[in-house]
Amino acid sequence: MVAKVDPNSDAASRGLRTGDVILQINQRAITSPQVAAEVINGVKKDGRSVVVILLQRDDDRLNVPVKLKADK
User: Do 52 and 28 contact (CB within 8 A), yes or no?
Assistant: First the structure.
């Protein structure tokens, strides 16, 4: 479940909300925050900057493309 969304992030501008449930990132099932971090780190390691998140909001499932923040 999404606990917090940075209001200045692409995720916020794409409509992710606190309380959304992330089901998949790039078609990989997300079963824990650690799995989500592994998928995102793998995407960054591959030189990509966008992920597609499948999320559950109430009775709806939404696919949301999100640009990742660059590592500092």
Answer: no
